[in-house]
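Honest question from a wet-lab person: if I give you the sequences of every part of a complex, can you actually get the arrangement of the whole thing, not just the pieces? Trying it with mine:
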Amino acid sequence: MTHFAAVLLFALFASTVFGITMRETPMRMLRYGAYCFVLFVGSAIALSWLMFLIAR
Amino acid sequence: MATEENKIAAPTPATKSAAQAESQQGFVYLPLIAGWLVPGAGHFLLRKWYRGALLAASIVGMFAMGIVMQGKLHSNPHDILDILSLAGDLGNGLLYVVSRVLGLGAEHVQVTTADYGTRFIVVAGLLNVIAAVDAHNLRTGRKS
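Yes, you can. This is the full assembly:
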């Protein structure tokens, strides 16, 4: 398994739980879950680029 | 303009308190304990089938991925980080116990993915605690 695949799986599982537990209606759960997923993956990519540029 | 039907359907303080009183009957901590022991079981007890199934799939999936990635199951904590990791592992409830009995999980982290696997297992436990508390909130009427 690649590191990025691990990031995607982690984001998917955590976002699903966050969406269901933090909101009350199905539509709001879906939107919040998608929001968390994007934040998880986006922050991982941004931090990866930051570390790459610092290491050079 | 409110119709007669809307007037009946609108929750009044009296009906709200009656619903809360009804939700307090029985052992209110049962969904919390069941949800901790078996991921999603708290929601299943409350007949929230889809939510329970999604929570169970997410938490068990994350725990299983951690085991497959040769993650470590903490047992004998030596420092504060080990103690915190053990607390996270214990959040998995029976998944942790069964895995320990079956000897799953690595004793030592030797490859990079095993370090990720260890975090997967800890976070699965923490997510399970969140899900169990959510089931408790549904049971007490704090959440719908």
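Two things worth pointing out. The radius of gyration of chain A is 14 Å. The CA atoms of residues 21 and 29 of chain A lie 8 Å apart.
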